[in-house]
Amino acid sequence: MIDIDILVIREPGLLRQDLERWISNEWVRPDRSEGHVVFHDIDVARVRLIRELRDDLAIDEEALPLVLSLLDQIYDLRRHLRMVGGFTGVGA
Amino acid sequence: MDDPYGTLGVARDASQDAIRRAYRKLAKQHHPDLNPGKPEAEARFKKITAANELLSDPVMRGRFDRGEIDAEGHEPPPRPSYRDYAEGDAGARYGGTDDFADMFGSMFDEARRKGGGRRPGRDELFALTVDFLEAVNGATRRLTLPDERTLDVAIPAGTEGGQVLRLRGQGAEGHGGAGRGDALIEVHVTPHPWFVRDGADIRLDLPVTLAEVVLGGPIEVPTPGGPVRMRIPPHSDNGTKLRLRGRGVPAHGGQPAGDLHATLRVQIGGADAALDAFLKDWTPEHAVDPRQAMETTP
């Protein structure tokens, strides 16, 4: 778990204002602890994902919520399939 | 070792712009988050990314082109992709609402309903044979079902053959806490030796003696409700119909009681010398030819 300062340092090219906007848009949902935001590994990976989508795949921030929402739904589905697969013995 | 130019599908002298375009095009195709469940896409994406990182940096590209470094040597240490987290338990953090849980829940509910979940039991059909008088007057019969249950079946008065009685909640067991189905009892009625049902009325051939039919008099008539005394009018005949009002099928279900229709059937009995003697000397007061109608119309 790291805070926002460390994350910005660790991710070259990541602008703090971008990150703060993503947080306020709830595209990234770090934990909040005593007024500080705390990033888990998945949050860091999600920041990278957003940057890849935006910078590498040229998905602008207008379309990003849609893409993120679709991805979240797919992962939800896959997690559930995996869970169901665990129950039924069928690989998901 | 992969050639980063080959990986991106660009010429060795491609411009930085062409490399970026090629990378974007391939990254769109192979991005692991757009290809969940395809590990080969992820591997390919890593190669594409590594190739891009090498070639998009003019300094690195120059060193690679000069052979100072190789592509593999500068492959960044693999870092977990978003997917590695998102598909694990941590992914729930960015899970949507409970839509999926709901969806799965309802799918399983559906499956349970179809495959033996909560659903009411089937209706079961049983046949029950009852006596004529039980059907007419009503009765309670105990029925032993195939599953050892016993069922007291109230047969209402006036039940007709083929009628189906529905006993709510006495059918097959429900599943998942649902109630039983209904028991459907199809009633069969055995014929009676002398009573015949005609709707609410009962017909009866009533044997009478010669004296009773000629002289009339009180007799006892069987009815479904028990014997009833009645008077045969004098000078009745074989085939005379008498009606006992209200002595047919008892009133039931808002229907008034039916009547009993008795048709007199004269029985002469065995040989009787006195009768023989009388008839030899007897001259009928009004001679009739019972076959007259048959003679005039051949």
How would you describe this protein?
The complex is a heterodimer of chains A (92) and B (298). Chain A has one domain: Multidrug-efflux Transporter Regulator, Chain: A, Domain 2 (Orthogonal Bundle), CATH 1.10.1660. In chain A, 62% of the residues lie in helices and 10% in strands. Chain A has four helices and three strands. Chain A is globular. With 298 residues, chain B is an alpha+beta fold. Chain B has three domains: 4-94, Helix Hairpins (Orthogonal Bundle), CATH 1.10.287; 124-189, Urease metallochaperone UreE, N-terminal domain (HSP40/DNAj peptide-binding domain, Sandwich); 195-296, Urease metallochaperone UreE, N-terminal domain (HSP40/DNAj peptide-binding domain), CATH 2.60.260.20. Helices cover 31% and strands 22% of the residues of chain B. In chain B, the strands form four sheets. Chain B has a four-stranded mixed sheet with strand order 6-7-11-10. The model of chain B has no long low-confidence stretch (mean pLDDT 83). Classes of the chains: A mainly alpha (92), B alpha+beta (298). Chain A binds chain B through residues 29, 40-43, 45-46, 48-49, 52-53, 56-58, 68-69, 71-80, 82, 84, and chain B through 23-24, 27-28, 31, 33, 36-37, 79-96, 99-101, 104. Chain A: This is MerR family transcriptional regulator. Chain A: It comes from Siculibacillus lacustris. Chain B: Residues 3-68 form the J domain.
Gap between N and C termini of chain A: 30 Å
Number of domain modules of chain B = 3
Order of helices and strands of chain A: EHHEEHH
Biggest interface goes to: A-B, 28 and 30 residues
User: What summary fits the major beta sheet of chain B?
Assistant: 4 strands, mixed
Q: How does the helix and strand content of chain A classify structurally? A: mainly alpha
Helix content of chain B: 25-40%
CATH architectural name of the largest domain in chain B: Sandwich
Overall radius of gyration of chain A: 15 Å
If you average the pLDDT of chain A, what whole number results? 84
Unreliable residue runs of chain B: none
What is the count of DSSP helices of chain A, taking H or I runs of 4+ residues?
4
Q: Could you tell me how far the N terminus lies from the C terminus of chain B, measured between alpha carbons in angstroms?
A: 121 Å
Strand order of the largest sheet of chain B: 6-7-11-10
Multimer state: heterodimer
What number is the mean pLDDT of chain B? 83
Instruction: Report low-confidence residues of chain A grouped into runs of 5 or more.
Output: none
- Fourth CATH level, the homologous superfamily of the largest domain in chain B: Urease metallochaperone UreE, N-terminal domain
Beta strands of chain B, count: 11
Order of helices and strands of chain B: HHHHHHEHEEEEEEHEEEEHH
* The CATH top-level class label of chain A: Mainly Alpha
